[in-house]
Structures are given as C-alpha cells and as structure tokens.
Design goal:
The protein has 585 residues and is α/β, with parallel strands linked by helices. It has eleven helices and 30 strands. Bound molecules: 2-acetamido-2-deoxy-beta-D-glucopyranose (3 copies). The site of one 2-acetamido-2-deoxy-beta-D-glucopyranose has 2 residues, from loops. One of its GO terms (biological process) is L-arabinose metabolic process.
C-alpha cells in the first residue's frame, strides 16, 4: 500500500472474532454486534516517530548462549583452565583415551602464556610395538565440545594448538564420531622440541556427524604437553567467528540495538568472577578465561569485548555495553575506592572508540579494527539500584564518562517510571518477568510514567511463570506482544526494549523460557522469538493515532504504524491487535 493511498484516511475496523498475533484483516460484518472497533487516523502522525532503537536484542552469556552457541569455537575448555589457575586444574569436558598403565594425564603450570599458566601434560607409557604396546587406535585425550561438535562434510576446520615435548612426537589429530570410531578428518603432528610450538592445521571433513569429538592420540612413548587447543569452522559470519545460523536468526529481527554481555553475568555472584573486559581482549590464546559463577560455567572468553562490538557492527546495530560498577550479588567495592574501576571502564571506552594510536585504541586496531566502534550507550551496572554503594559508585562513573565522552548516553539501574531519580541519567532500566496476565496488563504501564525525566529502557521482559511460559508458549508470546504494543504506543518515552534471554543451549537450560533454542547443529525460535518478528519493522516507523472502542479494555490492545520497506521503498500500514486469551494456548 503506497503512502499516497492512505494519507488523510480514517479507518474503522470492527472485530468480531479475534485472532492472535497478526490480526490485520478482520472481517467487517455489519449485521453482528462487533466486540471492538479500532479507529486509525492516518492524518494524525506528526508527533509520533518511533525511535530507530525501540526493539533490540539483549545478549547475555547465559545457557551457553555464546560459549558453545553463537561463538563458533568447537573446543570447550581449550586451555585446560576451567579450574582456574590452580593445579590440578579442571579439564572437563576433556577425557582420557587409554588407562593408567598406558598414560598419565596431569595439569601443570608450564604454559608459555603468562595469564593462563595451566597446560596439560600427557605422559605416554606405552610404545609403538613391543611388550608394552599401545592399542592400535593409540592413547590420548578427546574433547566432545559443547555436547557434541557439529562436523559437516566438505567444510573446513581450523585447528590450532600449542605443543612441546621431551623428544620427537607423533600425534594424530582426528575428528571422529562420539565413540572415536568413524574418522571424519585426520592429520599428523610430527615435531620435537622442548620449546612451545604453535601448530596450525586445516582439516576438511570427509563425512558429517552432529555429535563429533576432537581427538589427540599417539602410540609413541614420551612426554608431551598441550595448551590452547582450538577448533573453529572456517565458515562463520564474515569469518568473524559467529555461527551462521544463530547469527542469521538475530539478524532477521533487525535489532535496533545489542545490549551485552549481561545481565547477572556482568555482576557475578562474587566480584572475582565478574566479566572484566581487559581479560577478554588481545590474542585469544592469552586470555585467561573465567568462571561465570551466576550461570555456573567456564568461558574461555574467545567471545570478548572486541567480539561483542564486532557483533553489533555486523548486525548493523548500536552496541550497549553493560559494565560492572564494582558491585556483585554478594560483595561491593566502596565508593571511596572505586576509582580504579572507573579507569577500567574509561579504558574500555578508549578501546572501543579511541584513536588507533591511543593506548587501548591501538589494541583494537591491532585486533583488526582501526576505525572506532559506534559505541554510544553504556549501562552502569545491572539490577544494582538497591545496593549499598550504587548511587555513590554510579556518580563516579557518570561524572568521569560524561567528562571524557559527552555524547555517551548512560543508563541507570534505578526505575524512574513512577518517581523521579535522585541522580542524573539519560535512560533508566526497567525489567519485568511475570505471568501472562500481568504482562498483558502492563501494556498501559508507561501511559502514566512521567515524560520530563530520562527515557525508559525495558531491557529485560518475558513471561516466565512455569504454567504460562513453560519452555516457550503461544500464550506467553501473545501476552508479550500485548505488552510490546504498549511500548510502541509509549515510544516517546520508551526508547528501547528487549526480550530476555535470547538463547538457550538445550543441554544447559539455566533459564526458561528463551527466544532461540539450539544445540550444536540445530536451532529454532520459540513463539516469543516469532513475536519479536511482528515488531521488527517498527524501528523508525511512524506511530499512527488509534482509538479502540471495546468493552474488553483489559483484554485487548492495538497499535498502527506506517513503515517504509527499505528494499522497494513502499510504505505500508501495519495494524497489530492483541487479545489475551482466557486459557493457555
Ligand atoms: C485526524 O487527525 C487530524 C490531525 O490531527 C485531525 O485534524 C482530524 O480531526 C482527525 N480525524 C478524526 C476523525 O479524529
Ligand atoms: C541436535 O538436535 C537435532 C534436532 O533435534 C538432533 O537431530 C541432533 O541429534 C541433536 N544433536 C545432538 C548432538 O544431540
Ligand atoms: C565499605 O564500607 C562498609 C560500610 O561503610 C565498611 O564496613 C567496609 O569496611 C568498607 N570496605 C572497604 C573495602 O572499604
């Protein structure tokens, strides 16, 4: 429908029965009594451009969303570091092939990398033939990835590892099925040297298996050390390391922003386990990794600060960096000693935006991105408003950032939807997790919020009660759509909103429900994912004036937008009407 055809028009749509989610063409049957009439005044558009940022996405490292998910690294715990820097370290999910009469596997602190000293030592006792012969398939270690590696015939995989030994070594690298029987790709490492050597091998898969593993085996007696064993498919989005199918699913949502990397992941249960950006940049081999103690898993932090900024750029969207403000779930840094933490964040901003010759900007440039990233928003903490040091710490961060980067918009954790804030902010954070009925009824929540303060950022919303939401239901999606229609109508105030969480690996359901469910090889969207598709053209559209005449005021919401398709430049009208069902759908 072209713009010319619909200007200066008033529509009246009457609804007799109501359909879920995409009800744009309800029948008009004059002889029945309609339960609702929707008036859309297309002339009255002047005050209501919808922000380009309204509907975006929130990526948190939860449920293995990144490690084992969007981040395409196939090896889990590639540095044998999952137990931290102490020995013996936790090498899970690496396992040993062979018994203790044939080899002894241990961890020590002999790595060539200063920030991650743990290496794996393999003392091979059996030999190639003779009385103490190794089994024909050799002995060694294997890594099943994140509940199986998806190896696809014809695709190329890059293996990188660091190795040293006391004598000549002959190690077979193989990609196999989950039992180590079917060989999908193999290569030999023949070297010797007491010094650490980097080995890089391209493997081409000659078969496919969703549930593969990586093996390092040998039949030669001797001592060999491994560290930083990485396997990545060459085929990732633009070669940037993002798993293609999972990337495409979020790209399809046309997100208006990307909030990252948490969530509670940013806070940590304890500060020592919070996300610290400096430990996630530079060469991947040198990153220490960390244990995310809120969602209870180790990340090698290959998906770090740089990669998040790159992800936002690849999605064509605006990054929103949520940083730790010196507060975790259980401990806090007092305001009197917060300054080093403030400096850490200023450095992180310089990394993102600084001149390529600046201290931290030069590291970004060295990593492959001399041009600054388009970082214009930061959130000072996550859900910390009620914490003892929040206001004190907040102001230290706020003042320093305002001075160094006057254009950066700052987001407070404190809710200003009913009472004004006692501190300056550009936006305030609002989170809602509820049952379906409450979510739907909150569609008019922001009608009553003050317009003279900071803008609102609904950075986490979802129906979460088990009865209504399960692991993803149509009822939850309908209630969320009703709520989101309310956000659209209040988008003079609500400038950003994102559903949470985005991803879940089927083998690590820390949180239900989620938008995108995946395993190593497959992915699908829950109804709450598809709900977001109904709003993907709202960013930058024009909100039309609507009025709904109905007795079902608490069960029916509607909005109308005019949006332009950037491909054919046509202008379209989209009317969304949402009714909360009486029963679970
Ligand atoms: C539609 O909006 C225009 C512009 O605000 C206004 O002049 C007109 O009266 C409205 N029409 C109706 C039927 O409300
Ligand atoms: C991943 O999910 C698909 C589809 O349900 C299934 O066929 C496949 O076996 C799963 N992969 C693993 C490793 O379990
Ligand atoms: C932080 O402040 C609290 C309360 O004033 C105090 O008990 C604690 O000792 C302080 N901690 C540090 C590290 O300064």
């Amino acid at each position: 429908m072209g713009l010319l055809h619909i200007s200066h028009t008033l529509w009246m749509l009457s609804f007799i029965g109501l359909c879920a989610l995409h009800c744009c063409s309800a029948a008009i049957e004059e002889h029945q009594t309609p339960i609702a009439r929707l008036f859309v005044n297309a002339s009255d558009t002047s005050p209501c451009p919808i922000p380009d940022t309204l509907f975006g996405i929130f990526f948190e490292e939860i449920n293995h969303a990144g490690a084992g998910g969007l981040w395409a690294e196939l090896v889990s715990n590639r540095g044998f570091e999952a137990g931290g820097q102490n020995i013996p370290s936790n090498i899970y999910p690496w396992s040993v092939i062979g018994d203790e009469s044939m080899l002894i596997v241990a961890t020590d602190r002999s790595s060539c990398f200063d920030r991650n000293k743990i290496a794996l030592q393999m003392n091979v006792l059996c030999n190639n033939g003779g009385p103490n012969a190794c089994p024909a398939e050799g002995v060694g270690i294997y890594n099943p990835g994140f509940w199986g590696m998806n190896i696809v015939e014809g695709k190329m995989y890059k293996l990188v590892l660091y190795v040293r030994s006391l004598g000549p070594i002959d190690v077979l690298v193989s990609l196999t099925d989950s039992q180590g029987v079917q060989k999908l790709a193999t290569a030999n490492i023949m070297t010797s040297g007491v010094k650490w050597t980097k080995v890089e091998i391209l493997l081409k898969a000659k078969g496919s298996n969703y549930n593969s593993r990586l093996q390092l085996t040998t039949r030669r007696k001797g001592v060999v050390w491994f560290d930083q064993v990485s396997l990545t498919p060459l085929d990732t989005y633009k070669g940037h390391g993002f798993r293609n199918d999972l990337f495409q699913m979020i790209k399809d949502l046309k997100p208006g922003f990307l909030r990252f990397p948490g969530g509670c992941f940013v806070e940590g249960d304890w500060l020592m386990n919070a996300f610290r950006w400096k430990e996630t940049v530079g060469p991947w081999e040198e990153r220490p990794g960390h244990f995310g103690d809120v969602w209870k898993y180790w990340t090698d932090d290959g998906f770090g600060h740089y990669e998040f900024l790159q992800l936002a750029e690849d999605l064509g969207t605006v990054p929103i960096w949520v940083f730790n403000n010196g507060i975790s779930h259980n401990d806090e840094v007092n305001t009197s000693v917060i300054l080093p933490f403030v400096q850490e964040i200023l450095d992180g901003l310089e990394f993102a935006r600084g001149h390529p010759k600046s201290r931290w900007g030069s590291l970004r440039a060295a990593m492959g991105h001399p041009a600054p990233f388009n970082l214009k928003y930061v959130a000072i903490g996550n859900e910390d408003c009620e914490k003892f040091n929040y206001r004190g710490n907040y102001l230290k961060f706020y003042d320093a950032i305002r001075q160094a980067y006057p254009d950066i918009k700052m987001i407070s954790n404190c809710d200003a939807s009913r009472a004004p804030l006692d501190h300056p902010a550009d936006l305030y954070d609002y989170h809602i997790y509820s049952d379906a009925k409450t979510m739907f009824e909150k569609s008019n929540y922001f009608d009553k919020a003050p317009r003279n303060g900071p803008k609102a950022f609904v950075s986490e919303y979802a129906v979460t009660t088990a009865d209504d939401a399960g692991t993803g239901t149509l009822l939850a999606a309908i209630a969320e759509a009703g709520f989101a229609i309310g956000l659209e109508k209040n988008s003079d105030l609500v400038n950003m909103a994102s559903y949470a969480p985005l991803y879940v690996h089927v083998n690590d359901r820390r949180w239900n429900p989620d938008a995108i469910v995946f395993n190593a090889s497959h992915a699908y969207g829950t109804p709450s994912y598809w709900m977001q598709h109904f709003f993907k053209d709202s960013n930058g559209a024009t909100l039309l004036s609507t009025s709904l005449q109905t007795d079902l005021t608490d069960r029916l919401v509607a909005s109308a937008i005019m949006w332009q398709n950037p491909v054919n430049m046509n202008t379209y009208l989209r009317i969304k009407v949402q009714q909360l069902p009486q029963n679970r759908v």
